Structure prediction request, 269 residues.
Amino acid sequence: MSDIVFNHATVRERADMLSFLRLSAERGLETVSIWGDEIAKVGEANALAALRDHGMKVAGYNRIGPFGPGYLDRAEEELERAARFAPDHVFLFTGGLAEGERGLTAARRRVEDQVSRLLEMARRIGVKLAIEPLHPMLAGDRSVITSLTAANDLCDILGHGIGVVVDVYHLWWDERLGAEILRAGRAGRLLGFHVNDWLLPTRHLLTDRGMMGDGIIELASIDDMMRRAGFRGAVEVEIFSTDWWARDPAEVMDVAIARCRHIFGAKNS
Ligand code: ZN
Prediction:
């Protein structure tokens, strides 16, 4: 079992999905996280064949959402495509406030209702859903679920078939983080652990994430929280960064693997 997973988004500007899979395989990685739009670019049959040829499994499938008008009708098709890739979990991307919508409380109630309907679909199709709380600065336009507390509360209400992913970028500031990771672990719903870093200064909220070790997040201590909560999965490298996207994908992956080994003691074979 590999301890490191790359999210394709980390190198997507210069490596299509087929190149990304090859680069991962060359590094002894056995699992990847993938994107529906990247599958569409190379063709689903080619993507599935490449995964099979490399003997690779899928951790996270990105993604279901944003929940705009009429989205739930299209979601079933996306969930079915996700299921063909047999991922461990499928990400929910709720989106922020709807056009003309005012009031976060109402938006959250709407999203909770939508998630519960998506969960019924996902259970029928046979995939597990993952809520990834995003940073509160993204509440307006990206996700109205902005803390692990809220994600845990929602999972408590919804029952089986849904869990949470902890992304250090979104949650590092939260004084309740350790307690909520433990809560998620006890409930058996810790599905993933995304790593990157928070740079000072941060020039852009979506495209200026740091390489692990280049920023201010206490990565080893969050890793401890995850392990104490019983998480035995891989660390998933997910860096949205115009700086890293401009570099050679192979170099980016090698730097990230070295950092993971150093910070998390992770292995890649
Ligand atoms: Zn993430």
Remarks:
- Residues 135 and 171 are 6 Å apart (CA to CA).
- The beta strands are 4-7, 31-35, 57-64, 89-92, 129-131, 162-167, 190-195, 235-237.
- The pocket of zinc ion is lined by residues 132, 167, 194, 238 (CB under 6 Å).
- The longest helix spans residues 104-125.
